[in-house]
Amino acid sequence: MRPRDRAAEASAAAGGSVAGIVLAAGASTRFGRNKLLLRIEGESLARRAASAALGAGLRPVVVVLGHEADRIRAELSGLAVRDVFNPDYGLGMDTSLRAGVAALRDGVAAAVVQLADMPRVTSAMLSRLVERFVETGAPIVASDYQGVHAPPTLYSRALFPELGGAEGDGSGRRLVRRRESDVVRVPWPADALADVDREEDWERMDTRTP
User: What are the pLDDT digits (tens) for 114-168?
Assistant: First the structure.
């Protein structure tokens, strides 16, 4: 069964759809240019992340835009995603998280939050988070890269008020720490954690890409 089909089946079992929130608003300050426009196998990082969410069967998929929003929006052309502009993106990632949560409508049982600059995150990984949510009923299903905790992370709808609260940068991480006893972790290979923060990160990743 494809990741999309497994996630759709799991979403039905959860009593509502599982949404995707792709955070793609940052200014790529450390990188020096908009890294979300970089391409792997002919696909930009922004489009790759949105495609992974769609391929996992997440519905709806909300992509939060900010820096160079029009350019990123163009990269998403033809994809069945909803883009949301965050005018406060310069104030930190949590403003984008709040914008994404606010864009979700009733009928969503949970949301998977992912970063657009993690191109090794696959549809199968996102689908597995949904499956574990349905299997365990845990309010948070988090990724564990051999001891390193990073996105994507699934949050149940009951946590949306906390997730979208005005707590400043890092509220998602703090929420996971506060509710550690309720968190189910899914292990991934360390290589899947690779993100693109600096030019050398991209150069290393580009040489590993067919």
Answer: 999 999 999 999 999 999 999 999 999 999 999 999 999 999 999 998 887 655 4
3-state secondary structure of 151: strand
CB 135 within 8 A of CB 110: no
User: What is the arrangement of strands in the sheet containing 61-65, beginning at the earlier edge strand?
Assistant: 82-85, 61-65, 17-24, 108-115, 148-156, 140-145, 183-188
Length of the chain: 210
| Sequential DSSP letters for 194-208 | ---SSHHHHHHHHHH
Q: What tens digit of pLDDT does each residue of 39-63 get? A: 888 899 999 999 999 999 999 999 9
Return the sign of the alpha-carbon dihedral for residues 81, 85, 88, 89: positive
Domains of the chain in sequence order: 3-208 (3.90.550.10)
90's tokens: 């310069």
185, 105 Cβ separation under 8 angstroms: no
- String of b and e for 52-74 (b: at least 16 CB within 10 Å)? bbbbbbbbbbbbbbbbbbeebbe
Flag whether pLDDT at 3 surpasses 70: no
